[in-house]
Amino acid sequence: MNTIFRLKIALQTMKDHGKTTLILALLFMAMAAMYAGMFPSFETMLLDMTDAAFIESFPFLPHIDQMHTYVGFLTLELYNIFWLLLLAIMVGFIAASSIAKEIEGKTIDLLLSNPVSRKQIVIEKFVGLIPMVIIVNFSTMVVVMGITVALNESLNYANLVVVHLISVLYFLAVISIGVLLSAIIDDKMKASIVMIAILVGMFVMNSVSLMTADYEALGFLSFLHYFDTFTVLQFGEVDGVGLVVFIGVTVVCLIVAMFYFEKRDIEIT
């Protein structure tokens, strides 16, 4: 029982990704500072662009009619693409290689030689990636807050905190899918590519669902459908169904990953 609480694998996973976590945090802090900081320079131009013809040209971009506002600009330029897609791809890529790299690198036998079950390996690999999400997530939030104060722009900071709290659940769901793929696919690059394909596919499906009512149902297959950062930032409205989806996906993927990894054959040559 004591081995369950030592979390040695989780701690090692945190150490292994320490530099990556720092790089991602600095990268997204810089991006947050850049996009938030450039808003005053583009505000007038964006206001002139926001006419009916322009809006109709980009039906796949949610809330584009609010692009001339500070919240709308942050949503479109930072959160919708760089946050919910690009950061998710990076985190998912890492998660999808977490177990597969141990098998591919022939180090899985060292893990299995320890008094830990395969289920625990799955859980600890997942837990070991949580600090990365928390550090990148909240360091970026602090930068957005700081730049907003410096610019004296209008932003509900409580709503901003809620956005980043929901982001934690969003990224945990992404990580759980990656860990599941990593438990199934031995090749870390193949697992990571499949993970990227899933995330890009979700983004495309959500975009298509916004373009025409005929394909609106596709949106239900995308995480982005359940996390509207503009609505949360502007009005503080949280999609309860989305929270259930993120938590449900995380739990189901981890359970499937644990049981599949427990039963599968692993060839060590």
Pick out its properties.
mainly alpha; 269 residues
Query: SSE order, as H and E?
Result: HHHHHHHHHHH
Quick check: average pLDDT? 88
Number of domains: 1
**Uncertain segments of ≥5 residues (pLDDT<50)?**
1-5
Helix content: over 70%
Strand content: under 5%
Count of helical regions = 11
Main beta sheet, described?
A: none
- The chain-level structural class is mainly alpha
Number of strands: 0
- Write down the Rg: 20 Å
Anisotropy-based shape: globular
Can you put this structure into words, describing what you see?
- The protein is an all-alpha fold.
- It has one domain (2-263).
- The chain is built from eleven helices and no strands.
- The protein has helices at 8-16, 18-49, 52-57, 70-96, 100-104, 108-112, 118-151, 157-184, 188-211, 229-235, 240-263.
- The longest helix is centred in the middle third of the chain and has 34 residues, at 118-151.
